[in-house]
Structures are given as structure tokens and as C-alpha cells.
Amino acid sequence: MFLYGKKSIEQLETCDPLLQDLFHQVIKIVDVTILVGHRGQLEQNSFYLMGSSKLDWPDSKHNKIPSEALDAAPFPIDWEDHKRFYFLGGIVTSLASTMGILIRWGGAWSGEINPKGAFNDLVHFELTSNPFKQKHAFDLNAGFGAIK
Predict the structure, then answer these.
(1) Below-70 pLDDT ranges, the chain
(2) Of 12, 18, 34, 76, which sits with the fewest C-beta atoms within 10 Å of its C-beta?
(3) 92 vs 104: CA distance, rounded Å
(4) Looking at residue 116, which CATH number applies to its domain?
(5) Domain residues for 53?
């Protein structure tokens, strides 16, 4: 069984409860690290100026409290092994669908893998319009109907 490290836990705790629920299930399937949840103004502006984000402060979902976005990577991180990032993206989006959580992944902004030359943000996961802001009763160990 995989476990989050202290930094990952701290970052995950800055996120919307739906993202927390989702990534507490993800870690049961694959080893993953949470790089960032909430971003403050200075950090967001820095990411924007470097081209790592398309949105300036306060327009990113990372800037909400709680954060409606997080960046996560397969652990251990190998930035050159893109297949592991696509694998993680598939797990997260599939699990989110199973849990009824509407999510968008930075490797498939429109719902399909980004075309060559598009802005790829393979670590980025964000909530989309989700009419069901509620605690989901799904646990991989117990199945549907489990109470958390």
C-alpha cells in the first residue's frame, strides 16, 4: 500500500474535499505525490510569467480557497517518462468518473488527449462544474455504499 508523505498531505489539505476524496482513493492504486494544491498570488504570478500556467492571479483554480485544482505526479518523479503521467491521468479521470466527480486533466483539456503542440500540463487536475458538492460514499476497499 502506498502512503502520502508529509508535504503531499499538507498540499492535499489545501484542496476542495472532492479532490481530497479522489486522491485518497488514487493513492490506493498508484504511488503519487501531490506537488501543489493552493497557490498564493506570488507563486501564481511566477508560474504565469514562466509560462507554466496560462492564468494569472486570481484566475487559476489553484487560487481558490479551498483549491479547486492540484498538481500531482507519479512517484518517484521522472519528468522524462511521459507514459507514467498519462497512466496517472487515466487512473485519476477514470476513478473520478466512477465517483461522480467532474474533473479536467491538463493532458486532455477537451476530454481527448491534447494534440501535438498544445499546452500540456500533465500534472494538473481541476474540478469542473460539479452540481454534487457532497461527500461521496465510495471506497475501493469496500465498494459502493461504504461510509467514510
Answers:
(1) 130-148
(2) 76
(3) 10
(4) 3.30.1380.10
(5) 6-139
